[in-house]
Amino acid sequence: MVAMIPFIIQLLYGLSFFSMGIVVLLQSGLPAGLIPRSALLLLGLFGIAHGTHEFCGLLLLVLSRPQTFVELRNSVEFLDLVLLITSYVLLAMFAVDLLIKAQFYARRWRIIPPILLVLWSLSSVFYWQSFPSTSFAVLLADTKTFARYFVGFPGTLLSAYAFYSIARVQRHSLNHRGFIYLMGTASAFATYALFGGLIANHPARFFPASALSIETFEASFGFSVKLVRTFCAVTISGFVSLELVIEMGKLRTEWSRLREEFIAVIAHDLRSPLASIVTGAQLLERLEGDGSTGHKQKMEQIIKVILTGCNSLNRMISDLLDSSLVETHRVVLKTETIDVIAYLQNVLAKLPYLSSSNPIKVRLPDGKIYVDADPQRLEQILANLLSNARKYATPGTEISVEAELKFSEVIVSITNLGGGIRPEEQAMIFSRFQRSKSARKSNVAGIGLGLHIVKGLVEAHGGRVWVESVPEQNATFRFTLPLKQQSA
């Protein structure tokens, strides 16, 4: 029975990650919640790859007995190496994707996983060339250790930091259990980074594996490294799965609420333009056939009212269609190279109606900044943000439009002075049909699609969008656009 304990631990180890991968992949097919769908997909693939890697370890335990399975064991060792490095790269990609999309880190962070993979490859090639007479099995084992050091340790630490960041930033919108689950996951990943990334499975010729391996650690401290790794795997799997179950429950509740709110908002907002159109049509019917000058003037006014109502309906329908394209990731861009500074000046000159009660102050850098963008969609982004700023600005105050070049992207900021947005509402205002409590209480028209469309269009351009606000003072919406890539 005692001899079965390593097999049981290894089996539990693999099952924990594999089951987490299945649960996360199922969740990635649902509408985005706390964690973006692309990040969930990467985390799910990591769970399946890492779980399968541990199953290979279980098979290696079985094959370690008889000496007749040497070739099969070497094949399994090689497969195990491929699964190990693949899972760690996927984990690093997950962490970076989560930090970029949920925490507004720059897209240049995406270079981290390839750098880690190159470092591992170079170190492995150099090691194999330095010890050509070493057995194939030993070289594979040491290459796995390099994978843990160069990819596994930093990738796992990045994941711990990503979960910690999500918990910290979203603490206002999370319930107590959700916050505990995310912080628990961060702690488990940090512990797993130490015991799974720094402690080598076997002693090796290089540091720190020469001094810190499972054998030396257990001899010094007297407890099982495999047991700690398994505990971390179970904790990560449990907390992530529980958090996603809570997310699914929240999504069901949220979709039910959104459905009811959508019906109520659409019914309310459709009533005004429809009432204008119906009333105007009835008046036109009464005035039909009357050729007097006075009646002609009235007819022109009525026609303007009808056109205004039709334009309002057209905008609402367009927003609904654009929202559908954004939600299903079917936005098609017709990009061209544009000077974003000149473009901003032209667009702001074309939208004078926005500055009727709130003058627009423009601060743009000198020179030219080129980006690849869809001019029509970019104008839609600016119009939505400026319209939103005007709606909630204190009458008579300035709306500020600024642009700045920062590293490999241009940041456009639009600031208004007014009620601002509370911290707990900042994360949800980019969701579909979401409006802040102050907006819902006010008489400002809107169905909560403008910012959702802005987010989708900005991300389709490869950028990011977020809000910074001081409640009761101001709100600043910022979005980024990657600079045009210079051809070699």
Give the termini distance in whole angstroms.
Answer: 64 Å
Shape: elongated
Low-confidence stretches: none
Note the run of SSEs as H and E.
HHHHHHHHHEHEEHEEHHHEE
Tell me how many strands there are: 7
Radius of gyration: 29 Å
Q: Which architecture of the largest domain would the CATH scheme give at its second level?
A: Up-down Bundle
Structural class comes to: alpha+beta
Strand order of the largest sheet: 2-4-5-7-6
Number of helices: 14
What is the CATH topology descriptor of the largest domain? Rhopdopsin 7-helix transmembrane proteins
Helix percent reads 55-70%
Q: State which percent range the strand residues make up.
A: 5-15%
Domain count, please report it: 3
- Residue-averaged pLDDT: 83
**Tell me about the biggest sheet?**
5 strands, mixed
CATH C-level class of the largest domain: Mainly Alpha
Question: What is the topological layout?
Answer:
Layout: H1 5-28, H2 37-63, H3 70-103, H4 112-130, H5 136-169, H6 176-198, H7 214-221, H8 225-287, H9 293-327, E1 336-339, H10 340-350, E2 360-363, E3 370-373, H11 375-392, E4 399-406, E5 409-417, H12 423-426, H13 437-441, H14 450-460, E6 465-470, E7 474-482
Parallel strand pairs: 2-4
Antiparallel strand pairs: 1-3, 4-5, 5-7, 6-7
Helix pairs in contact: 1-2, 1-8, 2-3, 3-4, 3-5, 4-5, 5-6, 6-8, 8-9, 9-14, 11-14
